[in-house]
Amino acid sequence: MRSLCAEAGPNPGNWTNLHYLRNLESCDQTVLFGLNVHNSVADPNSILTIRACVASQGQTYEAAPSPDAPQQESPRNLVVAENCGAKAVKSTFTTHAGPSTLSKASGTAPEAAHVAEAADQLARFVGTSAACGTTILFAKYKSAVVGLYSGAQITKHAARDFVDSFAEKQTSALQICQPSGAAVTLGVVSAGFVDMAAAQDAIKSWNDALCLNGSTTATTTVSIDVLVSTMDNSFNASTISYGNVTARGGPGLLFSRAECKTQEVKAGDSCPSLASRCGISGADLAKYNPRKDLCSTLMPKQHVCCTAGTMPYFGPKPQPDGTCNTYKINDNDLCYNLASTHYLKPEDIENFNKHTWGWTGCGNLQGGQLICLSTGTPPMPASRPGAKCGPQVPGTKKPTNDTALADLNPCPLNACCDVWGFCGTTVEFCTKTPADTGAPGTAKPKTNGCISNCGVNIVNNDKAPDHLMTIGYFEAFGQLRGCLRMSASELPADKYSHVHFAFATVTSDFNVDISNVEDEFKLFMKTSGFKKILSFGGWAFSTDPDTFQRFRDATKKENRDTFVNGLVTFMSRENLDGFDFDWEYPGAPDIPNITPGSSDEGNNYLDFLQLLRSKLPSEKSISIALPASYWYLKQYPVKHMATYVDYFIYMTYDLHGQWDVDNKSAMPGCEGGNCLRSHINKTETHDAMAMITKAGVEARKVVIGISSYGRSFRMNDASCSGPLCTFAGDRNHSMAYAAPCTLTGGYISNAELNDIIKDHGNYSIVKSSIDKDSNSNILMYGNSGAVDWVAYMDGDLKASRIDWIKGLNFGGSSDWAIDLQHPSDKEDRDDSDYVEQDDDESGEDDLTCPPGENPGTLDGLADKTDSLYAGCARLYAMDILYNQLVDSLSLFQTNSEGYDDKFSWYEKWTKEQIQPRIDEFMNLGDGKGLKYFDCYWAYANRDETKDSCLGMPHIWEMSQGWSIRFDLLDKQGFFDALTAETGIDESWVTFGDEVSNYVCADPGDVRPGLGGNRPCAKLYTKKLNYPQKASDDDISVGNPKKLIEASMDNVTALRTSLFSSYLSVGLSFYDDGPNDTSATDAVVAYSMPVLQLTEAINSMSQIKEIGEKAKEEAKKSLVLEILSIIFMVIPFVGEALGPLVGSVTSVARIGLLIGEAGNGALTVAEVIEDPTSAPFAMMGLIAGAGIGGGGKLSKADALADASKVRSALKGSDLAKFPQGFRDQDALVQKVIKSLCSKK
């Protein structure tokens, strides 16, 4: 939903146009909407135009101008005018209520709270902004839809009050149904949104002046304002009931042949306003216009008689410029009524509109649609807010040449434009489905119908390339991985025509920067057998907050020469064969954590390529990477870029991923964007190839991407693996296993996949298959309750895909990436093998550290450190910490399964404690909260007495009904004390009335002769303005699992950093420093965050042992374990903490809430509350915040600083950590003490 009511204003012509109920169903916000009530939502042949906007709390509506031309007048142009040219008088009506539920399809009643919210927004709109004349409008909120019909003679404030009354009665329908006609009919109906058809039928009945069946007469009557002529002094229903006009009128009036004097109906007119302009009474208007439904069918340009006589002919005539007489459709129009009002026949309207844009026949009139009521040229169609292509883009002028309407405003990239004005590249957008009328701009029901650039065929591929390119990317940054560290010297000489070295970057002064990959670049330049291409940028460089601006600035006019000259110089010096640029993505509006791109970035990129081409030798190639997504590709002027590049790298290997979650457009047929789809789907690849060739690029210039990695997803149901089955996690956090080398959940190399297939390792489930529909290899692997689904390409599938690419005359294939295919022949496959150490570290020449000597646990290492060489002890310590971190992450994946059920119980149980703790705090007589109130007390049916709440009489001990009204005197003091005592936050409290169930008064002694027991004398007690628990929806209890997921970026940085330092220690690359302490510092620095995470994951294991039906003490254990997770993980999360679980202080309050203040599991909160404390400071250093290292620690001083922070942690603070953490930390300190004694 794109339109906010507050921004779009009250005119539905400015609201978002929707065409399927599912678009409304998926919106959880309150939506106001209208549609033609005659186009049934239950009829599969109906074509719907739903005009909708999103409302909000406190919504106000201010008029916004109509986007249409003046002559295209709307009879519902929402003009706020209370009396609408007439006079309001009071009149009494009887209301009729419907049943408590109204169902048509499901029989499921909507939630009362949802009905109330929808009705409230409906009342707000009607009271301030509904038009003069008939009002038909719906409001939807979550499960409920509420519809309103207000006849033309009902004032808007009366309609608003009626909607409010409906909300209070909790019935499915409320109506004032008059035999005098729809003009004074007023009705409100509610239903479950799934039963929208029932609500629509009710509105249609009222519009036809019919009453709902099955209603019962209410016992009360209502007095409301209705409109009458200014010549009338009261409302008389008979003045608008025309059934016996002949009896009231004289014969001369009925048979007069003279023409009457007339008034033309204007927008918003009613019979009273017309009678007022005529200067006659409502009864006279009825007499001169003897048509029973006149007042409910008034339309602009219609005429009424103000005197006796026959109506002159006012049949519609073409406009002076030859355009037909136009009319804008309302939500209650039918061709029959239009024809009757305008002196036409329904078939005339059909004939006039054979060439009118969007005309699908009299059976499918669309709200806001412009049609012809005469001969002449069809009008320009009404604009559609949000339309991106075609003639209905707002502001589009009628063409003065022969341009067809369908060809106006073509889509970027020559993508398909559908009848609703949206661009796309799939069959849904690109298939023509004209309606049976044959009129332009139409589609058959339930289709979108293409109007321009239709089709999904690959074009521009008649010429084959001179040479088929086989390109492979080499990830030079792969050296940072713990394994799978292929060297450039291992690149195969005869397999690829081109190898792209990834990545160089750009400095802030626009020079080439290879400093991070310089060693590999030197090796790369010594290779032979393929063209050597240097690739710039990549996703990380293009989107990192520190570097995303580089490409944007380097390609600007003022910096372009500097950038190009530096590139030319570098090319000449290094004798490369070409440059490749991977800017992801110019002009992109929605890359997370960076400012949106500007609209000129695509053209800046083009101008840069043009300048670079002019300065590079012709034999040196230029290529750029392109996204295979229409959303991002449309910013690239690819047709013009093709002139200056030798080839495009088309990234058709990331068609889907975790990032699709919540994107309704990412996956056809999957609203949640979380279905199992292949990132290398062949059909979608074909569509992407069609998209770029339709954009004007020759196929032979496009190199199609293939992959040497898989995209993995944690299956929600291991037995459901089809394209409509779903996966877990949000768009930023994958729940899939992180493989040992790539270390990223959701991304796994072919080499790692092959290892799993050959040696199942720790996985009990490993299933391989081929999905023919997507042309992908599929691997499902994991353990019971935690199974991943991954799509990938093996060697055979790659070969088949390359043949297919070749057969379509594309330029070749591009494989990401060579180093992901198999382990390096030169890398050490077992990092625990014998590793040389520096003499300075060990004090011995040619020292080796046998892996068999590594005890594998901190406990074992602490026992034998004294007998080990210091260098080996440090290496083993780093190895143990690294493996403990890896094991914790794996255990998190396992513990996540079934955890959400436990958390929901924790959340429910925590909220249940709030009211009892409030009651305890406010206990009558001695509650600690009473001193902040005055109490006004009274016995039933007696006057109130003001008193101190602590000093008032104990009326609650008496056998009488009573009430106490609490008057809060010191709000700040009350909530400070409440929070300190119970942990309850102010936002968790509301004030309201608490009425007890009655008790029977003491009957006293039963006197003889009075029979049995006396009847119950009911006694009620009331607490008024009493503090109460707020709605569950207003109380946020953060989910620690979400916290751990949010910490994964920093956890991954920790893992990468730890492994890098581990290698440095093991390979003696570490700069020991003057005191021989750097390797020891590394052990100290990494131990604390690793042990914190271990403690958190262990707490998850404990939680899984606590069932929902646990005893009271087990419930408390559950809460304590969950709080323990939060406090251990908080330092990994940083700024994301607040939105997930609130402040540390607010989390700690839950301990008070459950009566566990001072519990040892919670005392660590006192440490974590300080953002400068050791856990935060050490994690900050490791993440690079303290050293500017971007998370890649290579400086001993950073680890030394972190080690000092740990050493400065007071024993009293350490004692506040959980026992499990302290036990493991003590082992680390024992190892460190032993190492220090070896100096």
From TrEMBL:
- Residues spanning the signal sequence: none
Tell me what reaction this enzyme catalyses. Random endo-hydrolysis of N-acetyl-beta-D-glucosaminide (1->4)-beta-linkages in chitin and chitodextrins
Occurrences of domain Chitin-binding type-1 (ranges):
386-456
Q: Which SUPFAM superfamilies match?
A: (Trans)glycosidases, Chitinase insertion domain, LysM domain, Plant lectins/antimicrobial peptides
Does the keyword section mention Zinc-finger? Answer: no
State the SMART domains in the record: ChtBD1, Glyco_18, LysM
| CDD domains found in the cross-reference section | ChtBD1 (cd00035), GH18_zymocin_alpha (cd02878), LysM (cd00118)
**LysM domain boundaries:** 261-306, 325-373
Name used for this protein in its record: chitinase
Per the UniProt record, the source organism is Talaromyces rugulosus (Penicillium rugulosum)
What phylogenetic lineage does the species belong to?
A: Eukaryota, Fungi, Dikarya, Ascomycota, Pezizomycotina
